[in-house]
Write a structure and sequence with these properties.
five-stranded antiparallel sheet, alpha+beta, about 160 residues, single chain
């Protein structure tokens, strides 16, 4: 048993070192991450076609970053060096970082920055960045609902 624990600690240490690219590894405790192959994401009545299945992490539905942001009308930029996500729409700029629980929202022409603590940070799986559906959708002014019976996230844009 000791050998198994030591091996797991060594593997986790090796994968979390800065020598590995985030695209190569997704580490999440099994108790906190449950793959969900049958979660639907519906935006304004239309089911989104996602190239990576949504997953639930810490009771939050995580969806592919580019798919959700672009469906909501935002432009997405990925900065590989810092593993940073920047989404802009109109006067809003949303900044997130892989494995970081902070989401920063800024408005053009304002010095105000709002920092939100996420329940689950963005992460990379199958070469796709996943972000919390509710947090990013609501940051862009949409209304979000989770329907547990059908395992569906509904997102409705306001206005």
């Amino acid at each position: 048993m000791k050998k198994v624990i030591v091996a797991l600690v060594l593997i986790l240490t090796m994968f979390t070192s800065t020598g590995f690219a985030a695209e190569e590894v997704l580490i999440a405790p099994a108790s906190e991450t449950v793959a969900q192959k049958d979660i639907d994401v519906i935006l304004n009545g239309r089911t989104l076609d996602l190239d990576v299945a949504p997953v639930i992490v810490n009771d939050r539905t995580m969806v592919p970053m580019r798919a959700i942001f672009e469906a909501l009308g935002a432009e997405v930029n990925w900065i590989p060096a810092g593993r940073i996500i920047i989404a802009t729409k109109d006067e809003l700029m949303i900044t997130m970082q892989i494995d970081n629980l902070n989401m920063v929202i800024e408005r053009a022409g304002s010095d105000d920055r709002e920092i939100f603590t996420l329940d689950a940070p963005p992460f990379i799986s199958n070469d796709r960045t996943l972000v919390p559906a509710r947090a990013v959708s609501e940051a862009l002014g949409a209304k979000v609902e989770w329907i547990p019976e059908t395992r569906t996230v509904t997102v409705d844009q306001m206005g």
